């Protein structure tokens, strides 16, 4: 039996792969370029905080880098959910695929950094990245649950209104 690939599968699979390539491209930047990117974000965040009446100097480049790791991988967790849900697979297979990808991408990402001038791979960043994937996955699951509950309530209400007429 031949499985038909849908447009949704192609779209979300391509989106996930392209996003992983984006993550890897960030890891391939040398230390100076990476630091310049972090510094630019740091200055922007500090300016926004200062404009809001908060001391912007409380935010450091370390905080920016770790927050970037977490949010980058939370987005990956959401993209992986969107990707794997398009495939007709048993739930345990989708979960296993999500967990495997959610570990292998951060592991590969930090390994890439071992070969880039001035960069180093950190096991603590692998764990932070995995936590980001888990957070994105939980966020997606919570949103999906809320949407399904809202849809079920609307269907029940519509059904109730149609039977009471």
Q: What percent of residues are in strands?
A: under 5%
Low-confidence stretches: none
> What gross morphology would you assign?
globular
Number of domains: 1
How many strands in all? 0
Helix content: over 70%
Continuous helix count: 5
Q: Element order, helices and strands?
A: HHHHH
Termini distance? 47 Å
Radius of gyration: 21 Å
| Overall pLDDT metric | 92
Largest sheet data: none
Alpha-beta content class: mainly alpha
Give a quick precis of the structure.
This protein has 165 residues and is mainly α.
Describe this structure in words.
By secondary structure, the protein is mostly helical. It has one domain. The chain has five helices and no strands. α1 packs parallel to α4 (91-113), α3 (61-84) packs antiparallel against α4 and α3 packs across α5. The termini are far apart. The mean pLDDT is 92.
Features:
165 residues, mainly alpha, globular, VanZ-like
Compile the SSE list and pairings.
Elements: H1 7-27, H2 31-51, H3 61-84, H4 91-113, H5 123-163
Helix pairs in contact: 1-3, 1-4, 3-4, 3-5, 4-5
